[in-house]
Amino acid sequence: MNLGLIKGIVAFVVLLLVQALVLNRIHLFNCATPLLYVYVAMLFRRNFPRWAILVSCFTMGLCVDIFSNTPGVAAGAMTLIGLLQPYLLTLFLPRESPDDLSPSMSSLGIGKFILYAIILTLIYCTAFFALEAFEFSNWLHWLECVGGSFAITSLLLITVEYFRHRI
């Protein structure tokens, strides 16, 4: 078995457990919830099979749905992120980069990685809370949830990547 595959599976399980056991219980100001499991979708390397990205993201979303009692919401939003991730990654990669480049602060640069993380997180939070609300009658609360969760998730993702980059 490939060492990269084992690391990916371990990251998948650890982030799922952290989300299910700790982060799902945090609701800052009754609207902001950290959604750290998006980090799994951000780390797929360039030229990774797209079907594998979609299946992995859907599986992660489905597992989160099972533990969070959000039927299909995380699975749908994670599948959208799995669909868009390869295209967004190509926007931030240098032209001469190797085919198996994995996105990180060291490979993309700090500024590009932060922008990449922010865009993916914003898309994810918007899709997640749009599917969760499924209506826009209370759009101010929806905007608070998207904005608060986006801010706290982005901060957590960048912090985790920073410490991963330093080790």
Give an overview in words.
- This protein has 167 residues and is an all-alpha fold.
- It is 71% helix and 0% strand.
- It has seven helices and no strands.
- Helix 1 (3-21) packs parallel to helix 3.
- The chain is globular and about 50 Å long.
| Shape summary | globular
What value does the average pLDDT take?
A: 88
Proportion in helices: over 70%
What pattern of helices and strands is seen along the backbone? HHHHHHH
Sheet with most strands: none
Distance between the termini: 24 Å
Given helix and strand content, the structural type is mainly alpha
Total count of strands: 0
| Assembly category | single chain
Structural topology:
Blueprint: H1 3-21, H2 38-42, H3 50-68, H4 73-92, H5 105-108, H6 110-133, H7 139-166
Helix pairs in contact: 1-3, 3-4, 4-6, 6-7
Write a compact overview of the structure shown.
The chain is an all-alpha fold. Helix content is 71%, strand content 0%.
Keywords:
single chain; 71% helix; mainly alpha; 7 helices; 167 residues
